[in-house]
Amino acid sequence: DIQLTQSPSFLSASVGDRVTITCRASQGISGHLAWYQQKPGKAPKLLIYGTSTLQSGVPSGFSGSGSGTDFTLTISSLQPEDFATYYCLQFKSYPLTSGGGTKVEIE
Amino acid sequence: EVQLVESGGGLVQPGGSLRLSCVTSGFIFSYYYMGWVRQAPGKGLEWVANIKADGGETFYVDSVRGRFTISRDNAKNTLYLQMNSLRAEDTALYYCVRYVRGNNYYFDNWGQGTVATVSS
Known about the structure:
The complex is a heterodimer. In chain A, 0% of the residues lie in helices and 50% in strands.
């Protein structure tokens, strides 16, 4: 099974900050990585797929990068609506697996 | 607009069964793989199962294989998850997801979920 290690698990930041979340896979996943945002009581929302493709309707302040086993989600300027929990998921092989999540809170 | 609406959750005793349903609309259901993802209270996301567009192949996480069965009725645009021999650790919010497979693979749409609670 492919393990995804997401870090940090928690981060405190201010509006306007640049935020970076990393996701490391236990083996290469050929870029088949997506990022999701989840707010309390809501279903996850797709932000980025295929490592770096922004889902339609997602603000351009979100970006993804990476290759091989190391991937990054960047929020260029944190907005009030961005405070949420973020998950990476790999779609390279079954079982599909998720990182443990990163909770972004207001500093 | 794509809609995925789950139902069928509830409280069941250990060893019992539940059948979850996901009624879909707004897209050609028979064209897409579908799946289920669950989230235990206060925990992260765990993929449970996927099914091919024609229902001809299914995939499961090891912890549910042999106990859960994913199926679909393309005439009714509906996805199912039959859950048998339920355990306390199956307690979770279960999301129905649409699985896009092309140049990239990802879950692009999620339902709001239905809660299954396994407890005596």
